Amino acid sequence: MKKSILNLGKTLNKVEQKRVQGGMVILRCSSGNCYSDNWVSGGTSEGDTCAVLFGYGDYCRGVINNNECCIN
């Protein structure tokens, strides 16, 4: 049984290992992506600063555009 447990998954290469932090893959904020859910802002006007929440404290900053938070 120990042998079968040790063989679960695959070995990560160096690039993949660098992307993992505490068992989670680090999120990258991509410019131009807009989100209609899970975002917060101190204002509600076009161009106001906002943040998209991804859980575990991860977020990306953007601006409000057409009632969505768009990463800039």
Structural topology:
Elements: H1 2-6, H2 14-19, E1 20-21, E2 24-25, E3 34-35, E4 39-41, E5 49-55, E6 58-65, E7 68-71
Antiparallel strand pairs: 1-2, 3-7, 4-5, 5-6, 6-7
SSE order in H/E notation? HHEEEEEEE
Report, as a whole number of angstroms, the end-to-end distance: 50 Å
Per DSSP, what share of the residues sits in E-state strands of 2 or more residues? 35-45%
Strand order of the largest sheet: 3-7-6-5-4
Number of domains: 1
Low-confidence stretches: none
Number of strands: 7
- Main sheet overview: 5 strands, antiparallel
Helix content: 10-25%
Q: Whole-number radius of gyration?
A: 18 Å
Short description:
This protein is of the alpha+beta class and 72 residues long. It is 15% helix and 39% strand. The N and C termini lie far apart (50 Å).
Write up this protein.
- With 72 residues, the chain is of the alpha+beta class.
- The chain has one domain (2-71).
- Helices cover 15% and strands 39% of the residues.
- The protein has 2 helices and 7 strands; from the N terminus they run ααβββββββ.
- It has helices at residues 2-6, 14-19, and strands spanning 20-21, 24-25, 34-35, 39-41, 49-55, 58-65, 68-71.
- The strands form 2 sheets. The chain has a 5-stranded antiparallel β-sheet with strand order 3-7-6-5-4, with no helix packed on it. Strands 1-2 form a two-stranded antiparallel sheet.
- The chain starts with a helix and ends with a strand.
- The mean pLDDT is 78.
- This is Natural product.
